[in-house]
Amino acid sequence: MNSARELLKLIESKQLFPLFQPIIDTAEEHIIGYEALIRGPQGHPLEFPDALFSAAQQHDLLSELELACREAAIREFLLLDTDARLFLNVNPNVLQDSDHPHGTTLRLSQQLGIDPRRIVIELSERYPIQQPELLKEAVLHYQQLGFLVAIDDLGAGYSGLKLWSEIKPDFVKIDRYFISDLNNQPTKREFVQSITSLARKVNAKVIAEGIETIEEFHQLHHLNLFLCQGFLFARPTKNPPQTLPVEHLLPQARNTIAPNPDTIASVTRDAITLSPFDKAHNALELFSNRRTLCSIPIVDNGKAVGMLRRESLMELFSGSYGRALYANKEVSRVMDSNPVVVDCNTPIDTVSTIITDDDDVDIFREFIVTQKQQFLGVASVRDLLKRITELRIQNARYANPLTLLPGNVPIHQHLDELLAARQSFAIAYFDINHFKPFNDNYGYAKGDEVIRQLGQLLVQYADSPYTFIGHIGGDDFVVIFRKTEVAEVICKQVIDAFEQHITTFYSTQDKQRGYVLATGRNGQQQSFPLTSLAVGLVIVSADTIQSHHQVAALASEAKKQAKQESGSYCYVDCR
């Protein structure tokens, strides 16, 4: 077969056609775009892309093939009658070909009536990139024309993360290799987490491609990676689905109340229970048959009314007449009628205080956990202390080194746990206005002192079992309130305290004139107001929010509104 002649024949007779595979936002459950995957006639030696592009490379027909593929993809895509985006695969090196006619894709989009913002140019890392600088210029050219840009097959090839961070694409697609068996390979999970973290910093969206198993999808969902593509959802086809419900694929935890790891619910477990009218010999039999059973909650019509402990019951039955005296008595006669009972939403630190108030605390002692006054389960002092230790280690691991407050990882985890529990809350985003001119005048050491001061004020006024204080980085902090009614009051208290303390950091001259002199963005010296505090406060209804990304966007927008005001200000957004 003369592959050059066959390829030219396919191009000239327009026999190339695309199949489309949907890309889904599994959090919002809608299709954001379709990737066009080109094919030749069925049964033809050049039916599949590897053969097509290999022949094109061999016979210097890559530019001709690329343009034919794009035209076929755009024409067929418009027939789908969808508002989603079209993802077009492009070999980066063709952009550097001097014979490649530039501007063809834009002319095609204008001719066929499709907004360039609906077209995403996918640049694959699978091809060796000989001149990265020229590639960056080409990417900028596409973006200036209005197209979006994606890097495909991230991690599969040659250009690496340095090039990605310089290009700042709109989308990044993680190669199938890193998605395959992700649920069983910690190294792959760490890679995916690193990529999503870096993507946030360059404002790129991450797409996981090649998802084939439900376990891979659930692991990605757990990692808060919601843009997905793969055979699990749909195979490439000429007529792809317009909607693609994924509710049946989602982890079951989405439809249940998830325990918040900062509350006692996180260490609560099921337990064998007895009615207060059961006989004591029934309890004795349970303890005798289950050596690890420490206690039995006594529950009446769903309410916990007491606790029967192994050591107490065994002591009663150990005497000469113990069995005769107690075997047929109701357990209500021998139970502890005043056990420790806590609600499942009680913060772990609060429960720890309740438990350790007892001078004779036993680490194996169990207590009762309720939900809306109904029996839920039991927890032990040992599990409680273990969880406290785990949380402290985790917070220390991800703490901001300047303030030792929890950083981005625990902040995101805390938000996701509140959302999973369908719990309404408030989030306050604190940002220092005109902080750069202060740093420029007084130095970074003094700036660090101001940041630490703000962190200390937040702890002083906002710290409680019902709040979470986090340090995003720099002069940005967040406070998450589970008691929304106190949020605005506390924010204003912090503002007042900040206003009182901040003047101590300025020289007498700057305080008297009320501004500092610093170099502005235009390179000229100008005056800047003294620092103040902008607070964006959002009252969040968890039923309307899917992920911490949405919460962060709302809080950032509220903070921007607060910064529009002169001086310190708290902007409140009730959702």
From TrEMBL:
Question: From what organism does this protein derive?
Answer: Idiomarina aquatica
- Key words of the record: CBS domain
Q: Name one GO molecular function term.
A: cyclic-guanylate-specific phosphodiesterase activity
Domain (EAL) ranges: 1-250
Give every GGDEF domain span.
423-575
Matching SUPFAM superfamilies: CBS-domain pair, EAL domain-like, Nucleotide cyclase
Q: Which domain of life is it from?
A: Bacteria
This chain belongs to the protein called Diguanylate cyclase/phosphodiesterase
Tell me where in this chain the CBS domain is found: 267-325
Q: Does the keyword Glycosyltransferase apply?
A: no
Query: Has the keyword Chloroplast been applied to this entry?
Result: no
Against InterPro entries, the record matches this protein to: CBS_dom, CBS_dom_sf, Cyclic-di-GMP_PDE-like, EAL_dom, EAL_sf, GGDEF_dom, Nucleotide_cyclase, Rev_trsase/Diguanyl_cyclase
Which PROSITE patterns does UniProt cross-reference here?
A: CBS, EAL, GGDEF
